[in-house]
Design brief:
By secondary structure, the protein is mostly beta strands. Helices cover about 15% and strands about 45% of the residues. The protein has one domain: OB fold (Dihydrolipoamide Acetyltransferase, E2P) (Beta Barrel). A hairpin with a 5-residue loop joins β5 and β6. It is globular and about 45 Å long. About 15% of the residues are buried. InterPro entries: NA-bd_OB-fold, Primosome_PriB/ssb, ssDNA-bd.
């Protein structure tokens, strides 16, 4: 059986780091993952996926990733249930992350917001970049001009 999850999204709130009675680190967080299609109004929607990560990876995530950080997560889907104080059975589905990867540099979120606020550059005005030592003469071209 295969139970493998790969997600790329933004953290919706700072990860919550706790420790079990056995001193195991565990962090919970939620990822906003954009859907690949637009709704009837032409807007993109997102899924908000609850995740949990354990041990050293949990401590690393809590230390380095904050709300808005773009990360990639690999893991598996897990379901669990418990009985609440009203005696009702509560079912939870979450991603148990095995690892994560930060997909932007620190401060990248702020830079991304700033770049979205600026107008798009006019590429026609940019001059082409030259590579040093690569001068091409007409004799090097593979066709004949008549």
């Amino acid at each position: 059986m295969i139970n493998n999850v790969v997600l790329v999204g933004r953290i919706t709130r700072d990860p919550e780091l706790r420790y079990t009675p056995q001193n195991q680190a565990v962090a919970t967080f939620s990822l906003a993952v954009n859907r690949q299609f637009k709704n009837a109004n032409g807007e993109r929607e997102a899924d908000f996926i609850n995740c949990v990560i354990w041990r050293q990876q949990a401590e690393n995530l809590a230390n380095w990733a904050k709300k808005g950080t773009l990360i990639g997560v690999t893991g598996r889907i897990q379901t669990r249930n418990y009985e609440n104080q009203q005696g009702q059975r509560v079912y939870i589905t979450e991603v148990v992350a095995d690892s994560f990867q930060m997909l932007e540099s620190k401060g990248g979120t702020k830079q991304n917001e700033e770049s979205q606020n600026n107008t798009a550059p006019n590429l026609a005005r940019e001059t082409p970049h030259e590579i040093p030592g690569t001068e091409i003469s007409d004799d090097d071209l593979p066709f004949l001009v008549l």
